[in-house]
Amino acid sequence: MVFNHIPQISLYTQESRISYVLLTIITLEHRYTMLERQPAGRFVPETVQNVGSQIMAGVSFMHEKGVVHRDLKIENIMIDADGMIRIVDFGVSKQLDGRDDRCHTITGTPQYVI
Fold it and tell me: What is the pTM of this model?
């Protein structure tokens, strides 16, 4: 299934104990770069609403698929050339197995973990 807010896997292969993942190539911009181009150095409310709703759609899609990102932070939200949000860095994400709907370890960026 394709979802616009998460980069798509083009190829996955495993060799011995090493996994290789090839994602689609997209040109992304960091929100800080986009923010610098905004009048008065801040996003207008419409942009905040658009970005927020896209992030929530992406998180909702992941959760429907049983995936918990576990390190969702502003640095892991990118914007493509068309203004679409891309959630990146699934390095510590977890696929729930259906038997338990919780993660039993604390992980993520220490500054964001409460």
Answer: 0.67
